[in-house]
Amino acid sequence: ESWRLLDALELQRFILADPEVAVEEIMDHTYAYLSAYDDREQAVLAIERYDLSALPVINSDGVLVGVVTVDDVLDVAREEATEDFQKSAAVAPLKMSYRDTSVLQLYRKRIGWLVVLVLISLLSSSVIAAFEETLAATLALAFFIPLLIDSGGNAGAQAASLMIRDLATGEIEPAQWAKIMLKEISQGLLLGAAMGVAAFVLGYWRAGAQVGLVVSFSMLVVVLVANLLGILLPFLLTRLKLDPAVASSPLITTLVDSIGLLVYFTIATSLLK
Amino acid sequence: ESWRLLDALELQRFILADPEVAVEEIMDHTYAYLSAYDDREQAVLAIERYDLSALPVINSDGVLVGVVTVDDVLDVAREEATEDFQKSAAVAPLKMSYRDTSVLQLYRKRIGWLVVLVLISLLSSSVIAAFEETLAATLALAFFIPLLIDSGGNAGAQAASLMIRDLATGEIEPAQWAKIMLKEISQGLLLGAAMGVAAFVLGYWRAGAQVGLVVSFSMLVVVLVANLLGILLPFLLTRLKLDPAVASSPLITTLVDSIGLLVYFTIATSLLK
User: Which of A107, A172, B50, B174 would be a feasible disulfide site paired with A166, CB 3.0-4.6 Å?
Assistant: First the structure.
Protein backbone atom coordinates (compact mmCIF):
# COMPACT_ATOMS: atom_id res chain seq x y z
CA GLU A 1 0.00 0.00 0.00
CA SER A 2 2.95 2.36 0.41
CA TRP A 3 2.86 3.45 -3.26
CA ARG A 4 -0.39 5.23 -2.39
CA LEU A 5 1.76 7.95 -0.83
CA LEU A 6 2.93 9.03 -4.24
CA ASP A 7 1.17 11.52 -6.43
CA ALA A 8 0.66 11.14 -10.18
CA LEU A 9 3.93 12.84 -11.13
CA GLU A 10 5.97 10.60 -8.88
CA LEU A 11 4.16 7.54 -10.17
CA GLN A 12 5.13 8.62 -13.66
CA ARG A 13 8.78 8.63 -12.56
CA PHE A 14 8.31 5.07 -11.40
CA ILE A 15 6.58 3.98 -14.56
CA LEU A 16 9.20 5.55 -16.78
CA ALA A 17 12.14 4.32 -14.67
CA ASP A 18 14.31 1.49 -15.80
CA PRO A 19 12.71 -1.69 -14.32
CA GLU A 20 16.13 -2.74 -13.01
CA VAL A 21 16.52 0.38 -10.83
CA ALA A 22 15.68 -0.01 -7.11
CA VAL A 23 13.17 2.33 -5.41
CA GLU A 24 16.00 3.63 -3.25
CA GLU A 25 17.62 5.23 -6.27
CA ILE A 26 14.58 7.24 -7.36
CA MET A 27 13.16 8.24 -3.97
CA ASP A 28 13.54 11.62 -2.26
CA HIS A 29 15.72 11.49 0.81
CA THR A 30 14.26 14.54 2.49
CA TYR A 31 10.52 14.48 3.08
CA ALA A 32 7.80 16.03 5.21
CA TYR A 33 5.95 13.82 7.66
CA LEU A 34 3.53 14.02 10.55
CA SER A 35 3.71 12.50 13.99
CA ALA A 36 0.73 10.36 14.98
CA TYR A 37 0.48 12.56 18.10
CA ASP A 38 0.28 15.91 16.24
CA ASP A 39 -2.93 17.92 16.49
CA ARG A 40 -5.01 17.43 13.34
CA GLU A 41 -4.55 21.14 12.57
CA GLN A 42 -0.84 20.37 12.04
CA ALA A 43 -1.82 18.12 9.13
CA VAL A 44 -3.75 20.99 7.53
CA LEU A 45 -0.87 23.44 7.93
CA ALA A 46 1.74 20.95 6.62
CA ILE A 47 -0.26 19.90 3.54
CA GLU A 48 -0.99 23.56 2.77
CA ARG A 49 2.62 24.60 3.27
CA TYR A 50 4.19 21.90 1.10
CA ASP A 51 1.32 21.65 -1.43
CA LEU A 52 1.34 17.88 -1.16
CA SER A 53 -1.48 15.45 -1.81
CA ALA A 54 -0.46 13.10 1.02
CA LEU A 55 1.87 12.98 4.00
CA PRO A 56 3.28 9.91 5.80
CA VAL A 57 2.52 9.60 9.52
CA ILE A 58 5.13 8.07 11.84
CA ASN A 59 5.07 7.03 15.47
CA SER A 60 7.67 7.97 18.10
CA ASP A 61 10.03 5.20 16.84
CA GLY A 62 9.92 6.61 13.30
CA VAL A 63 7.82 3.64 12.13
CA LEU A 64 5.41 4.47 9.30
CA VAL A 65 1.92 3.98 10.73
CA GLY A 66 -0.32 5.59 8.09
CA VAL A 67 -1.01 8.30 5.57
CA VAL A 68 -3.00 11.53 5.68
CA THR A 69 -4.39 12.54 2.30
CA VAL A 70 -5.43 15.97 1.13
CA ASP A 71 -9.15 15.16 1.00
CA ASP A 72 -9.13 14.25 4.71
CA VAL A 73 -7.31 17.50 5.34
CA LEU A 74 -9.91 19.51 3.43
CA ASP A 75 -12.62 18.12 5.73
CA VAL A 76 -10.54 18.90 8.82
CA ALA A 77 -9.80 22.45 7.62
CA ARG A 78 -13.50 23.03 7.12
CA GLU A 79 -14.44 21.66 10.53
CA GLU A 80 -11.73 23.69 12.25
CA ALA A 81 -12.86 26.88 10.50
CA THR A 82 -16.46 26.18 11.52
CA GLU A 83 -15.40 25.64 15.14
CA ASP A 84 -13.43 28.89 15.15
CA PHE A 85 -16.44 30.65 13.65
CA GLN A 86 -18.64 29.36 16.44
CA LYS A 87 -16.11 30.19 19.15
CA SER A 88 -15.66 33.70 17.75
CA ALA A 89 -19.39 34.24 18.35
CA ALA A 90 -19.21 32.81 21.89
CA VAL A 91 -20.89 29.52 20.94
CA ALA A 92 -19.28 26.32 22.26
CA PRO A 93 -18.41 24.24 19.12
CA LEU A 94 -21.46 22.20 18.09
CA LYS A 95 -19.30 19.29 16.80
CA MET A 96 -22.17 18.28 14.52
CA SER A 97 -24.33 19.98 11.92
CA TYR A 98 -26.82 22.62 13.04
CA ARG A 99 -29.62 20.52 11.54
CA ASP A 100 -28.79 17.50 13.73
CA THR A 101 -28.40 19.61 16.89
CA SER A 102 -31.57 19.67 19.00
CA VAL A 103 -32.96 22.83 20.58
CA LEU A 104 -31.77 21.68 24.01
CA GLN A 105 -28.28 20.87 22.76
CA LEU A 106 -28.05 24.27 21.05
CA TYR A 107 -29.23 25.88 24.27
CA ARG A 108 -26.40 24.22 26.20
CA LYS A 109 -23.84 25.36 23.61
CA ARG A 110 -25.00 28.98 23.92
CA ILE A 111 -26.20 29.68 27.47
CA GLY A 112 -22.80 29.19 29.12
CA TRP A 113 -21.09 32.14 27.48
CA LEU A 114 -24.24 34.28 27.67
CA VAL A 115 -24.34 33.91 31.46
CA VAL A 116 -20.59 34.57 31.82
CA LEU A 117 -21.10 37.71 29.72
CA VAL A 118 -23.99 38.82 31.96
CA LEU A 119 -21.60 38.63 34.91
CA ILE A 120 -19.02 40.71 33.02
CA SER A 121 -21.79 43.21 32.16
CA LEU A 122 -22.21 43.76 35.89
CA LEU A 123 -18.97 45.75 35.74
CA SER A 124 -20.67 48.17 33.34
CA SER A 125 -23.70 48.49 35.64
CA SER A 126 -21.38 49.21 38.56
CA VAL A 127 -19.55 51.92 36.62
CA ILE A 128 -22.80 53.71 35.78
CA ALA A 129 -24.02 53.33 39.37
CA ALA A 130 -20.75 54.79 40.67
CA PHE A 131 -21.20 57.89 38.49
CA GLU A 132 -24.91 58.29 39.24
CA GLU A 133 -24.42 61.93 40.35
CA THR A 134 -22.63 62.91 37.15
CA LEU A 135 -25.38 61.29 35.13
CA ALA A 136 -28.16 62.95 37.16
CA ALA A 137 -26.49 66.37 36.62
CA THR A 138 -26.22 65.89 32.85
CA LEU A 139 -28.80 63.35 31.77
CA ALA A 140 -27.84 63.85 28.11
CA LEU A 141 -24.74 61.75 28.86
CA ALA A 142 -27.01 58.71 28.74
CA PHE A 143 -27.81 59.34 25.07
CA PHE A 144 -24.23 58.53 24.07
CA ILE A 145 -23.76 55.36 26.13
CA PRO A 146 -24.80 53.03 23.27
CA LEU A 147 -22.78 55.02 20.71
CA LEU A 148 -19.57 54.82 22.72
CA ILE A 149 -19.82 51.25 23.92
CA ASP A 150 -20.95 49.97 20.51
CA SER A 151 -18.11 51.73 18.73
CA GLY A 152 -15.52 50.44 21.19
CA GLY A 153 -16.92 46.92 20.98
CA ASN A 154 -17.00 47.01 17.19
CA ALA A 155 -13.41 48.21 16.83
CA GLY A 156 -12.26 45.64 19.37
CA ALA A 157 -14.16 42.83 17.64
CA GLN A 158 -12.57 43.79 14.31
CA ALA A 159 -9.07 43.66 15.78
CA ALA A 160 -9.63 40.40 17.69
CA SER A 161 -11.11 38.62 14.67
CA LEU A 162 -8.16 39.57 12.48
CA MET A 163 -5.75 38.16 15.09
CA ILE A 164 -7.75 35.00 15.86
CA ARG A 165 -7.93 33.95 12.21
CA ASP A 166 -4.30 34.74 11.44
CA LEU A 167 -3.08 32.93 14.56
CA ALA A 168 -5.21 29.89 13.57
CA THR A 169 -3.86 29.75 10.01
CA GLY A 170 -0.25 30.45 11.03
CA GLU A 171 -0.20 33.78 9.15
CA ILE A 172 0.82 35.42 12.41
CA GLU A 173 3.17 33.89 14.99
CA PRO A 174 2.49 34.39 18.72
CA ALA A 175 6.00 35.88 19.07
CA GLN A 176 5.06 38.81 16.82
CA TRP A 177 2.70 40.38 19.37
CA ALA A 178 4.89 43.40 20.19
CA LYS A 179 5.44 44.36 16.55
CA ILE A 180 1.72 44.05 15.82
CA MET A 181 0.85 46.06 18.92
CA LEU A 182 2.97 48.96 17.66
CA LYS A 183 1.23 48.79 14.27
CA GLU A 184 -2.15 48.76 15.98
CA ILE A 185 -1.43 51.75 18.20
CA SER A 186 -1.24 53.93 15.07
CA GLN A 187 -4.25 52.05 13.66
CA GLY A 188 -6.22 52.76 16.85
CA LEU A 189 -5.21 56.42 16.80
CA LEU A 190 -6.34 56.81 13.19
CA LEU A 191 -9.65 55.04 13.80
CA GLY A 192 -10.16 56.83 17.12
CA ALA A 193 -9.50 60.25 15.57
CA ALA A 194 -11.99 59.66 12.74
CA MET A 195 -14.58 58.30 15.15
CA GLY A 196 -13.89 61.13 17.57
CA VAL A 197 -14.72 63.70 14.90
CA ALA A 198 -18.00 61.91 14.12
CA ALA A 199 -18.76 61.71 17.86
CA PHE A 200 -18.14 65.44 18.30
CA VAL A 201 -20.61 66.30 15.54
CA LEU A 202 -23.28 64.06 17.08
CA GLY A 203 -22.63 65.24 20.63
CA TYR A 204 -22.64 68.90 19.66
CA TRP A 205 -25.84 68.48 17.66
CA ARG A 206 -27.71 66.74 20.50
CA ALA A 207 -26.30 68.36 23.64
CA GLY A 208 -23.96 71.25 22.88
CA ALA A 209 -20.22 71.83 22.62
CA GLN A 210 -19.22 70.71 26.12
CA VAL A 211 -20.91 67.31 25.91
CA GLY A 212 -19.66 67.10 22.32
CA LEU A 213 -16.07 67.43 23.54
CA VAL A 214 -16.58 64.84 26.27
CA VAL A 215 -18.10 62.34 23.83
CA SER A 216 -15.43 63.04 21.22
CA PHE A 217 -12.47 62.61 23.55
CA SER A 218 -14.03 59.53 25.14
CA MET A 219 -14.50 58.02 21.69
CA LEU A 220 -10.82 58.48 20.84
CA VAL A 221 -9.70 56.80 24.06
CA VAL A 222 -12.31 54.02 23.91
CA VAL A 223 -11.48 53.06 20.30
CA LEU A 224 -7.74 53.11 21.02
CA VAL A 225 -8.08 50.96 24.15
CA ALA A 226 -10.61 48.60 22.53
CA ASN A 227 -8.36 48.07 19.53
CA LEU A 228 -5.38 47.22 21.73
CA LEU A 229 -7.45 44.87 23.89
CA GLY A 230 -8.72 43.16 20.72
CA ILE A 231 -5.14 42.68 19.52
CA LEU A 232 -3.60 41.62 22.83
CA LEU A 233 -6.24 39.26 24.25
CA PRO A 234 -5.84 36.58 21.53
CA PHE A 235 -2.05 36.63 22.07
CA LEU A 236 -2.46 36.46 25.84
CA LEU A 237 -4.79 33.46 25.46
CA THR A 238 -2.23 31.76 23.19
CA ARG A 239 0.48 32.40 25.78
CA LEU A 240 -1.76 30.80 28.43
CA LYS A 241 -2.07 27.75 26.10
CA LEU A 242 -5.73 28.60 25.52
CA ASP A 243 -7.47 28.94 22.18
CA PRO A 244 -7.23 32.55 20.95
CA ALA A 245 -10.75 32.16 19.51
CA VAL A 246 -12.03 32.48 23.09
CA ALA A 247 -11.54 36.24 22.53
CA SER A 248 -14.90 36.22 20.76
CA SER A 249 -16.64 39.34 19.49
CA PRO A 250 -19.19 39.10 22.35
CA LEU A 251 -16.44 38.77 24.99
CA ILE A 252 -14.48 41.72 23.58
CA THR A 253 -17.65 43.81 23.26
CA THR A 254 -18.72 43.12 26.83
CA LEU A 255 -15.26 43.73 28.30
CA VAL A 256 -14.80 46.93 26.32
CA ASP A 257 -18.17 48.25 27.48
CA SER A 258 -17.11 48.54 31.11
CA ILE A 259 -13.76 50.10 30.19
CA GLY A 260 -15.51 52.51 27.81
CA LEU A 261 -18.02 53.61 30.43
CA LEU A 262 -15.27 54.15 32.99
CA VAL A 263 -13.36 56.33 30.50
CA TYR A 264 -16.52 58.21 29.48
CA PHE A 265 -17.76 59.04 32.98
CA THR A 266 -14.30 59.86 34.29
CA ILE A 267 -13.80 62.37 31.47
CA ALA A 268 -17.35 63.69 31.89
CA THR A 269 -16.95 64.16 35.64
CA SER A 270 -13.72 66.13 35.26
CA LEU A 271 -14.81 68.25 32.26
CA LEU A 272 -18.45 68.99 33.17
CA LYS A 273 -18.12 70.83 36.50
CA GLU B 1 -1.60 15.99 -19.56
CA SER B 2 -5.12 14.61 -19.20
CA TRP B 3 -3.94 11.57 -17.21
CA ARG B 4 -3.25 14.04 -14.39
CA LEU B 5 -6.97 13.95 -13.70
CA LEU B 6 -6.71 10.43 -12.39
CA ASP B 7 -5.90 9.51 -8.84
CA ALA B 8 -3.57 6.75 -7.77
CA LEU B 9 -6.27 4.10 -7.70
CA GLU B 10 -7.43 4.90 -11.20
CA LEU B 11 -3.86 4.92 -12.43
CA GLN B 12 -3.48 1.45 -10.98
CA ARG B 13 -6.47 0.35 -13.06
CA PHE B 14 -4.69 1.64 -16.14
CA ILE B 15 -1.41 0.03 -15.26
CA LEU B 16 -3.02 -3.30 -14.52
CA ALA B 17 -5.33 -3.13 -17.58
CA ASP B 18 -4.63 -5.26 -20.63
CA PRO B 19 -2.51 -3.03 -22.96
CA GLU B 20 -4.87 -3.87 -25.83
CA VAL B 21 -7.91 -2.34 -24.07
CA ALA B 22 -8.96 1.21 -25.11
CA VAL B 23 -9.41 3.96 -22.48
CA GLU B 24 -13.08 4.09 -23.39
CA GLU B 25 -13.63 0.64 -21.92
CA ILE B 26 -12.15 1.41 -18.50
CA MET B 27 -13.41 4.99 -18.04
CA ASP B 28 -16.39 6.08 -15.94
CA HIS B 29 -19.29 7.38 -18.03
CA THR B 30 -20.80 9.54 -15.30
CA TYR B 31 -18.54 12.14 -13.77
CA ALA B 32 -18.58 15.39 -11.83
CA TYR B 33 -17.28 18.52 -13.52
CA LEU B 34 -17.12 22.28 -13.07
CA SER B 35 -18.03 25.07 -15.44
CA ALA B 36 -15.30 27.62 -16.10
CA TYR B 37 -17.85 30.28 -15.08
CA ASP B 38 -18.69 28.78 -11.67
CA ASP B 39 -17.74 30.74 -8.57
CA ARG B 40 -14.55 29.33 -7.05
CA GLU B 41 -16.54 28.36 -3.94
CA GLN B 42 -18.37 25.84 -6.18
CA ALA B 43 -15.08 24.04 -6.71
CA VAL B 44 -14.59 23.74 -2.94
CA LEU B 45 -18.11 22.39 -2.40
CA ALA B 46 -17.86 19.91 -5.32
CA ILE B 47 -14.46 18.50 -4.32
CA GLU B 48 -15.64 18.20 -0.70
CA ARG B 49 -18.91 16.57 -1.71
CA TYR B 50 -17.45 13.95 -4.07
CA ASP B 51 -14.16 13.44 -2.15
CA LEU B 52 -12.18 13.73 -5.37
CA SER B 53 -8.59 14.84 -5.84
CA ALA B 54 -9.33 16.69 -9.10
CA LEU B 55 -12.28 17.85 -11.21
CA PRO B 56 -12.40 18.59 -14.95
CA VAL B 57 -13.49 22.10 -15.95
CA ILE B 58 -15.52 22.57 -19.14
CA ASN B 59 -16.63 25.65 -21.05
CA SER B 60 -20.17 26.32 -22.28
CA ASP B 61 -19.63 24.01 -25.30
CA GLY B 62 -18.64 21.12 -23.05
CA VAL B 63 -15.01 21.41 -24.15
CA LEU B 64 -12.48 20.41 -21.50
CA VAL B 65 -10.51 23.56 -20.70
CA GLY B 66 -8.65 22.62 -17.53
CA VAL B 67 -8.48 20.87 -14.20
CA VAL B 68 -8.97 21.98 -10.62
CA THR B 69 -6.96 19.95 -8.11
CA VAL B 70 -7.57 19.47 -4.43
CA ASP B 71 -4.53 21.47 -3.32
CA ASP B 72 -5.83 24.56 -5.16
CA VAL B 73 -9.17 23.98 -3.50
CA LEU B 74 -7.58 23.80 -0.06
CA ASP B 75 -6.09 27.26 -0.62
CA VAL B 76 -9.42 28.64 -1.86
CA ALA B 77 -11.34 27.14 1.09
CA ARG B 78 -8.87 28.78 3.45
CA GLU B 79 -9.10 32.18 1.75
CA GLU B 80 -12.90 32.05 1.67
CA ALA B 81 -13.07 31.15 5.37
CA THR B 82 -10.68 34.02 6.17
CA GLU B 83 -12.82 36.46 4.19
CA ASP B 84 -15.98 35.28 5.96
CA PHE B 85 -14.17 35.67 9.27
CA GLN B 86 -13.27 39.25 8.41
CA LYS B 87 -16.75 40.09 7.13
CA SER B 88 -18.34 38.59 10.24
CA ALA B 89 -16.35 41.13 12.28
CA ALA B 90 -17.35 44.02 9.98
CA VAL B 91 -13.93 44.23 8.30
CA ALA B 92 -13.88 44.52 4.49
CA PRO B 93 -11.86 41.48 3.27
CA LEU B 94 -8.14 42.35 3.29
CA LYS B 95 -7.43 40.12 0.23
CA MET B 96 -3.83 39.83 1.43
CA SER B 97 -2.06 38.83 4.61
CA TYR B 98 -2.31 41.07 7.65
CA ARG B 99 1.47 41.44 7.65
CA ASP B 100 1.53 42.86 4.10
CA THR B 101 -1.38 45.23 4.76
CA SER B 102 -0.24 48.74 5.69
CA VAL B 103 -1.77 50.76 8.53
CA LEU B 104 -3.56 52.98 6.01
CA GLN B 105 -4.94 50.03 4.04
CA LEU B 106 -6.15 48.41 7.26
CA TYR B 107 -7.76 51.69 8.24
CA ARG B 108 -9.69 51.80 4.97
CA LYS B 109 -10.87 48.20 5.44
CA ARG B 110 -12.18 49.01 8.93
CA ILE B 111 -13.43 52.60 9.06
CA GLY B 112 -16.28 52.12 6.56
CA TRP B 113 -18.31 49.75 8.69
CA LEU B 114 -17.41 51.59 11.91
CA VAL B 115 -18.93 54.81 10.54
CA VAL B 116 -22.04 53.04 9.23
CA LEU B 117 -22.44 51.49 12.68
CA VAL B 118 -22.11 54.92 14.32
CA LEU B 119 -25.04 56.07 12.20
CA ILE B 120 -27.07 53.02 13.25
CA SER B 121 -26.15 53.77 16.88
CA LEU B 122 -27.92 57.10 16.47
CA LEU B 123 -31.18 55.14 16.65
CA SER B 124 -30.21 54.03 20.15
CA SER B 125 -29.39 57.61 21.18
CA SER B 126 -32.77 58.75 19.84
CA VAL B 127 -34.60 56.06 21.80
CA ILE B 128 -32.95 57.11 25.08
CA ALA B 129 -33.61 60.79 24.30
CA ALA B 130 -37.28 60.03 23.58
CA PHE B 131 -37.64 58.39 27.00
CA GLU B 132 -35.66 61.06 28.88
CA GLU B 133 -38.52 61.63 31.35
CA THR B 134 -38.80 57.96 32.24
CA LEU B 135 -35.04 57.83 32.77
CA ALA B 136 -35.03 61.01 34.89
CA ALA B 137 -37.80 59.57 37.09
CA THR B 138 -35.95 56.28 37.65
CA LEU B 139 -32.25 56.87 37.07
CA ALA B 140 -31.47 53.28 38.10
CA LEU B 141 -32.81 52.23 34.67
CA ALA B 142 -29.49 53.46 33.23
CA PHE B 143 -27.56 50.82 35.20
CA PHE B 144 -29.10 48.04 33.14
CA ILE B 145 -28.65 49.55 29.68
CA PRO B 146 -25.29 47.79 29.04
CA LEU B 147 -26.58 44.51 30.50
CA LEU B 148 -29.63 44.44 28.24
CA ILE B 149 -28.05 45.64 25.04
CA ASP B 150 -24.96 43.45 25.48
CA SER B 151 -27.05 40.36 26.13
CA GLY B 152 -29.28 41.02 23.13
CA GLY B 153 -26.27 41.69 20.91
CA ASN B 154 -24.48 38.57 22.13
CA ALA B 155 -27.46 36.27 21.55
CA GLY B 156 -28.02 37.82 18.10
CA ALA B 157 -24.34 37.46 17.17
CA GLN B 158 -24.39 33.81 18.19
CA ALA B 159 -27.42 33.10 16.01
CA ALA B 160 -26.14 35.06 13.00
CA SER B 161 -22.71 33.42 13.09
CA LEU B 162 -24.23 29.93 13.13
CA MET B 163 -26.35 30.80 10.07
CA ILE B 164 -23.58 32.60 8.14
CA ARG B 165 -21.16 29.71 8.42
CA ASP B 166 -23.73 27.03 7.60
CA LEU B 167 -25.04 29.00 4.61
CA ALA B 168 -21.45 29.41 3.34
CA THR B 169 -20.62 25.70 3.63
CA GLY B 170 -23.96 24.55 2.23
CA GLU B 171 -24.93 22.87 5.53
CA ILE B 172 -28.09 24.99 5.45
CA GLU B 173 -30.08 25.86 2.34
CA PRO B 174 -31.65 29.33 2.01
CA ALA B 175 -35.05 27.68 1.48
CA GLN B 176 -34.97 26.24 5.01
CA TRP B 177 -35.41 29.62 6.72
CA ALA B 178 -38.97 29.04 7.95
CA LYS B 179 -38.16 25.68 9.54
CA ILE B 180 -35.09 27.13 11.24
CA MET B 181 -37.06 30.15 12.43
CA LEU B 182 -39.52 27.86 14.22
CA LYS B 183 -36.63 26.00 15.88
CA GLU B 184 -35.11 29.31 16.93
CA ILE B 185 -38.30 30.68 18.46
CA SER B 186 -38.14 27.92 21.07
CA GLN B 187 -34.38 28.46 21.33
CA GLY B 188 -34.93 32.19 21.94
CA LEU B 189 -37.62 31.50 24.54
CA LEU B 190 -35.33 29.11 26.43
CA LEU B 191 -32.37 31.50 26.34
CA GLY B 192 -34.59 34.49 27.11
CA ALA B 193 -36.20 32.76 30.10
CA ALA B 194 -32.83 31.79 31.60
CA MET B 195 -31.41 35.27 30.99
CA GLY B 196 -34.62 36.84 32.33
CA VAL B 197 -34.20 35.01 35.63
CA ALA B 198 -30.59 36.22 35.89
CA ALA B 199 -31.72 39.76 35.03
CA PHE B 200 -34.41 39.68 37.72
CA VAL B 201 -31.87 38.73 40.39
CA LEU B 202 -29.53 41.55 39.33
CA GLY B 203 -32.31 44.13 38.97
CA TYR B 204 -33.86 43.21 42.31
CA TRP B 205 -30.48 43.35 44.06
CA ARG B 206 -29.58 46.77 42.65
CA ALA B 207 -32.93 48.58 42.44
CA GLY B 208 -35.75 46.58 43.97
CA ALA B 209 -38.54 44.30 42.76
CA GLN B 210 -40.26 46.71 40.34
CA VAL B 211 -37.12 47.52 38.36
CA GLY B 212 -36.16 43.85 38.62
CA LEU B 213 -39.39 42.88 36.89
CA VAL B 214 -38.90 45.49 34.16
CA VAL B 215 -35.31 44.34 33.49
CA SER B 216 -36.31 40.70 33.59
CA PHE B 217 -39.22 41.01 31.16
CA SER B 218 -37.20 43.26 28.86
CA MET B 219 -34.40 40.69 28.82
CA LEU B 220 -36.79 37.93 27.73
CA VAL B 221 -38.16 40.03 24.86
CA VAL B 222 -34.74 41.40 23.81
CA VAL B 223 -33.09 37.97 23.67
CA LEU B 224 -36.04 36.50 21.75
CA VAL B 225 -36.08 39.34 19.20
CA ALA B 226 -32.27 39.45 18.89
CA ASN B 227 -32.12 35.72 18.27
CA LEU B 228 -34.75 35.93 15.52
CA LEU B 229 -33.03 38.91 13.91
CA GLY B 230 -29.72 37.04 13.99
CA ILE B 231 -31.36 34.06 12.27
CA LEU B 232 -33.39 35.98 9.70
CA LEU B 233 -30.94 38.67 8.56
CA PRO B 234 -28.45 36.24 6.92
CA PHE B 235 -31.35 34.60 5.03
CA LEU B 236 -32.74 37.97 3.99
CA LEU B 237 -29.31 39.02 2.68
CA THR B 238 -29.07 35.75 0.73
CA ARG B 239 -32.50 36.38 -0.76
CA LEU B 240 -31.32 39.87 -1.82
CA LYS B 241 -28.32 38.16 -3.54
CA LEU B 242 -26.01 39.69 -0.93
CA ASP B 243 -23.40 37.86 1.12
CA PRO B 244 -25.00 36.61 4.38
CA ALA B 245 -21.68 37.38 6.14
CA VAL B 246 -22.66 41.07 5.98
CA ALA B 247 -24.82 40.23 9.04
CA SER B 248 -21.66 40.63 11.12
CA SER B 249 -21.58 40.45 14.90
CA PRO B 250 -21.04 44.26 15.09
CA LEU B 251 -24.00 44.95 12.76
CA ILE B 252 -26.31 42.63 14.69
CA THR B 253 -25.13 44.06 18.02
CA THR B 254 -25.71 47.64 16.92
CA LEU B 255 -29.12 46.95 15.38
CA VAL B 256 -30.25 44.95 18.40
CA ASP B 257 -29.22 47.77 20.74
CA SER B 258 -31.82 50.19 19.43
CA ILE B 259 -34.54 47.53 19.43
CA GLY B 260 -33.54 46.46 22.94
CA LEU B 261 -33.67 50.01 24.29
CA LEU B 262 -37.07 50.61 22.71
CA VAL B 263 -38.40 47.43 24.34
CA TYR B 264 -36.78 48.28 27.69
CA PHE B 265 -38.04 51.87 27.94
CA THR B 266 -41.49 51.02 26.63
CA ILE B 267 -41.89 48.34 29.27
CA ALA B 268 -40.39 50.62 31.94
CA THR B 269 -42.69 53.53 31.06
CA SER B 270 -45.81 51.37 31.27
CA LEU B 271 -44.81 49.42 34.43
CA LEU B 272 -43.16 52.19 36.50
CA LYS B 273 -45.95 54.73 36.93
Answer: A172
